[in-house]
Amino acid sequence: MNEEKRDEVDGTGEKQTLGKMPQPPLELQVATILLVLLICGVGIAGNVMVVLVVLRTKHMVTPTNCYLVSLAVADLIVLLAAGLPNISEVVASWVYGYAGCLCITYLQYLGINISACSITAFTVERYIAICHSIKAQLLCTVSRAKRIIAGVWLFTSLYCLMWFFLVDTSQVTFADGAQVSCGYRVSRTLYLPIYFLDFALFYVIPLGVATVLYGLIARILFSNPLPATPQHARPGSGHQGQPSSSMKLSCRGNKGALSSRRQVTKMLAVVVILFAVLWMPYRTLVVVNSFMDPPYLNIWFLLFCRMCIYLNSAINPIIYNLMSQKFRAAFRKLCKCEQKRTENVTQYNIPVYYSVMKDNSHDSSDHDVTEQEDLNGFPSMAKKSKLSS
For all residues of the chain together, what is the average pLDDT? Predict the structure, then answer.
């Protein structure tokens, strides 16, 4: 995000001499303030709700949702550290001082990079859960997801520490006042390897991995659906030639599990596609400007790039609400917009189901949740099947 800051001040990256202080057009200031307040307001509220519904609802604590919480926290950091400071920058000079320049820049890159890592993590988790369901019993657990998330945050936090040494504040004095900016400490060309490394690690590689893995997932879900009926039936469970009630329930459970997996996969694929599309303008601008002198810094295109980044961090909770019945029910419950009777009915219609399996390496039941129930059926139906037998 720092790539454009110094150049936005003077258009060329060189310090200006005495003269009248340049001011952004009034229409740009108005558009920036309105769009930032709208997008960041919706995004902050939505991502806070995602974190709250997962942490406060026991059946929402699943491996996939743990990665979505990590993504929500990263998006919150982007909106707070990149979005809101943009308002003060467009109407005045940098007002956060030297410490603010270092910390805000660090948090911007931290949130951006962790968003990409979280997307990659839940893509790999979905691939294992769907394409290798036996391994998923061991690999797709909440405890493992938490360890992976902790590792991602630790690695990215250390990786982004370099920005404390790469940015600084500068001041240009004009006839009518001084203008402070937060930008590069040294020549712009020295930052090109860092930007290309970021481009590869946190954009190209995540999208490449996602493209391959979602292709494999789609082949499993849409080309090789689950069998309509169970292959084996217990002797004596029903009359010959007629399916027993347990077989009907199992069949219904298989269909429900397939529908559930498709729905969750579509939702996560949409999140990845939006990440690719909304980050493309800014990533393209960085690459193009690396070979252009002077760089292309049209103020309206810069505004468009920024709004796409903020929108990417704000739109995910909306996607969850539109495409996941489970998240929609949890959001309604959090907002107290649903009566208890409706909530009790909803829990049998949620799209993803999870069971509890004992993980011998942990004593806490919070670490024993796996994706198995998400893959293989409905808990209520399994219980009825046992009673009917």
Answer: 78
How buried is 128 (Cβ within 10 angstroms: 0-12 exposed, 13-18 middle, 19+ buried)? Answer: middle
pLDDT reported for residue 386 = 41
CA 169 → CA 76, 96, 256, distances in Å? Answer: 25, 10, 57
Pairing status of strand 355-356 against strand 167-174: unpaired
Give the H/E segment covering residue 90. helix 85-91
Which residue has tokens 């059926």? Answer: 377
Give the model confidence (pLDDT) of 260-294 as tens digits.
778 888 999 999 999 999 999 999 998 888 888 78
pLDDT band for position 58 (cuts 50, 70, 90): confident
Show Cβ contacts of residue 121 under 8 Å, excluding neighbours closer than 6 positions: 67, 70, 145, 148, 149, 152
Enumerate domains of the chain plus CATH numbers.
2-233+241-388 (1.20.1070.10)
Cα-flanking dihedrals φ and ψ of residue 336, to 5°?
60, 40
pLDDT digits (tens, 9 = 90+) for 168-187: 998 888 877 788 888 888 77
Proportion of the chain in helix, strand, coil states, percent, rounded to 5:
70, 5, 25
Which of 201, 72, 65, 206 lies closest to 145 in space, CA to CA?
Answer: 65
Question: In this model, does residue 385 exceed pLDDT 90?
Answer: no
Q: Give 87-112 pLDDT, tens digit per residue.
A: 888 877 888 999 999 999 999 999 99
Pairwise CA distance, residues 299 & 222, whole Å: 45
Distance separating alpha carbons of residues 58 and 56, to the nearest angstrom: 6
Residue 165 identity (one-letter amino acid):
F
pLDDT reported for residue 257: 64
- Which of 213-216's residues contact partners 24+ apart within 8 Å by CB, and which partners? 213/123, 213/124, 213/126, 213/127, 214/123, 214/265, 214/269, 214/272, 216/127, 216/131
The amino acid occupying position 125 is: E
Give the list of residues 6+ apart from residue 274 with CB closer than 8 angstroms, or none.
Answer: 312, 315, 316, 319
Identify residue 151 by its one-letter amino acid code: G
Percent share of the chain, pLDDT over 90: 45
Tell me the residue ranges of DSSP E strands in 187-324: none
Q: What is the DSSP letter of 219?
A: I
Which of 92, 91, 72, 70 lies closest to 80 in space, CA to CA?
A: 72
